[in-house]
Design goal:
41% of the residues lie in helices and 21% in strands. The chain is of the alpha+beta class and 567 residues long. It binds adenosine monophosphate.
Length: 567
């Protein structure tokens, strides 16, 4: 039986080295020496996963639950934990300190008896995850508290991080894939294939060890990574690339992968979470209107309002997140699935069939009202007409798909091209920043952005931008912003408003979390606008009008498609 301490020691060593190759070597050497059960658990743990995506159980531990468990383990008030957190900036380090304070009260662990094994920690996490009902929070806290009472300082560090599934040691899916390939002498591609089909690193690890990776395939009730789309360079260029394309509306909703196993239906979200319990209307549709014993279907869940137009994306997400009073919300915001692909049918994977054949099977098994409409054409005018129709119906644009292509899980390939209006960039004021993590700890890693309310002159925040920055740019920006720090609070700081960022994004959303009332989805720094003064920053009004424009609410369909920069 392998101790959890040796796993914690591995994590510590991995954290200490900076090169990815060194990290992979360490993980590979560790995984190679484990029995099957420990191997399955550790392959997940090392990347900060306790239960694979799509599991019927989830940890359900947020930072506040963890802090409460630490406060109880330490016998100190929660406020003291919060203070330690501000100083350390990391829940793991706080957990170590709590345990350090506690020792050597726990005599048994002091003399090295009842040392935690990897499996002990996992079993305890299962108990945490399974706690349900009214007193579930308390039960979760007690189980975590028990772990902290048994753990050494190093173990506590990683137990804390694992409990909130944030390991911070620089090993992700790719790292574990390479480590497994190395540990058991298998090609990395074979490991990757197994993982993209099953999303269960434990299963993949044991198969890599046994040499049975090629037996892995699409599995009913295990979510498979979704095929993704690339942004097309406009309709004419995209059609040139694909030729005769399968043209579909790009519905404005949220992705669903539906697994039908006899009478039992499971639904997974784009992030492969099991969202079945919150979507009873989709479960009902799948049960009644899909005529197959077993099938995996891919589609978009859309909230259609009374006027027939889709409701905002956030309304759809409300449904996905809902845990209580699900039926009431389902009545308020009913969802309808539009299915556009088939992954598995009657016990067999169909991902290697061309889209045209998968579609033919889909149309056979699903009732027409559930199936997304599709048109085959190579003509620019036809695609443009469908694009305009999609936008005027309130949807996002169109998808152009290669009818001869296989279903490639997790890939953002050229076989699906999305065409949607290009959003104009925004010039926003930088009003705050946050220090980076790990390798980037000495840089300011993310920046808080604001637009201007011209009436009051106030700066209203619209969220944070963190991506689109090279190390070089980060270092330069950190130099500039260090001079502008007004106050620092832990990892975050307020900055004197002086710099303007030009920011691109995928979408503007309504958000109660920011004072502007809006948030940017997938913001990306385009450039620093040294040439612009604060007065030239974009206003709240512009943000609001871009928001409205993107949803086609205040423009006629033709005016809107003219503003589609892709055509
Ligand atoms: P994006 O999120 O912008 O990368 O666009 C891809 C997403 O569009 C998919 O993940 C689906 O959720 C959504 N979508 C809507 N309609 C379709 C469709 N007809 N085919 C594929 N994806 C679609």
């Amino acid at each position: 039986m392998t101790s959890f301490l040796s796993f914690a020691d591995l994590c510590h060593r991995v954290e200490e080295v900076s090169s990815t190759l060194d990290k992979i070597d360490l993980v590979a050497a560790f995984l190679a020496g484990l029995d099957d059960e420990e191997l399955a658990i550790s392959s997940n743990f090392v990347m900060g996963t306790v239960f694979p995506p799509g599991s019927d159980i989830v940890m359900g531990v947020g930072p506040s639950t963890l802090y409460e468990a630490l406060a109880r383990a330490c016998g100190c008030p929660n406020s003291q934990i919060q203070e330690m957190l501000r100083a350390a900036g990391d829940a793991g380090l706080v957990a170590s300190r709590v345990v350090e304070k506690r020792r050597p009260q726990n005599f048994a662990s002091f003399i090295g008896q009842d040392q935690l094994s990897i499996s002990d920690v996992y079993q305890r996490f299962v108990a945490v995850a399974k706690a349900s009902g009214k007193r579930s929070q308390d039960a979760k806290i007690k189980n975590l508290q028990f772990l902290f009472s048994q753990a050494s300082e190093l173990e506590a560090l990683y137990i804390a991080r694992l409990s909130i599934e944030d390991m911070r040691i620089g090993v992700g899916e790719g790292g574990v894939r390479d480590a497994l390939a190395k540990a058991f002498g298998r090609p990395a591609d074979a490991v990757e294939r197994g993982y993209s089909l099953t999303n269960d690193m434990g299963l993949v690890a044991v198969s890599a060890k046994k040499g049975t990776l090629s037996d892995l395939g699409v599995m009913l009730n295990h979510p498979i990574k979704m095929m993704l789309a690339q942004l097309g360079a406009g309709i004419p260029a995209s059609l040139k690339e694909i030729g005769t394309a399968a043209i579909e509306w790009k519905y404005d909703g949220a992705r669903v992968q539906i697994h039908k196993d006899g009478e039992k239906v499971r639904i997974f979200s784009r992030r492969l979470e099991n969202v079945t319990a919150s979507l009873p209307d989709i479960v009902r549709d799948a049960t009644q209107m899909i005529h197959a014993k077993t099938a995996i279907l891919d589609g978009e869940a859309v909230a259609i309002a009374e006027d027939g137009r889709p409701r905002a994306f956030q309304e759809v997400l409300k449904r996905f997140r809902r845990k209580y009073n699900v039926k009431r919300l389902a009545a308020e915001i009913p969802l309808k699935p539009f299915l556009f692909d088939l992954i598995y049918l009657e016990g067999e994977s169909v991902i290697d069939l061309p889209l045209s054949e998968r579609r033919a099977l889909l149309v056979k098994v699903a009732e027409p009202s559930l199936v997304a409409e599709q048109f085959l054409s190579e003509k620019v005018e036809v695609a443009k007409r469908i694009y305009k129709e999609a936008l005027s119906a309130g949807h996002e644009g169109i998808m152009l798909k290669n009818p001869a292509s296989a279903y490639t899980p997790g890939k953002r390939g050229k076989n699906w091209l999305k065409i949607k209006p290009v959003m104009e960039t925004l010039d926003l004021v930088v009003i705050g920043a946050r220090w980076g993590e790990g390798r980037r700890a000495s840089f300011l890693g993310s920046y808080r952005l604001a637009c201007v309310d011209p009436e009051t002159g106030r700066l209203l925040d619209v969220g944070w931008v963190a991506t689109g920055l090279t190390d070089e740019a980060l270092s330069e920006l950190t130099g500039i912003f260090k001079e502008l720090i007004v106050v620092q609070k832990g990892m975050e700081m307020e900055l004197k408003p002086a710099v303007i960022f030009e920011v691109a994004y995928e979408e503007i959303q309504k958000s109660p979390n920011y004072s502007s009332g809006f948030a940017l989805r997938f913001p990306r720094l385009v450039r620093v606008r040294d040439d612009k003064s604060l007065e030239e920053a974009d206003t709240l009004e512009r943000v609001a009008s871009l928001y409205k424009m993107q949803r086609g609410r205040n423009k006629s369909p033709s005016a809107r498609s003219e503003s589609a920069g892709q055509e």
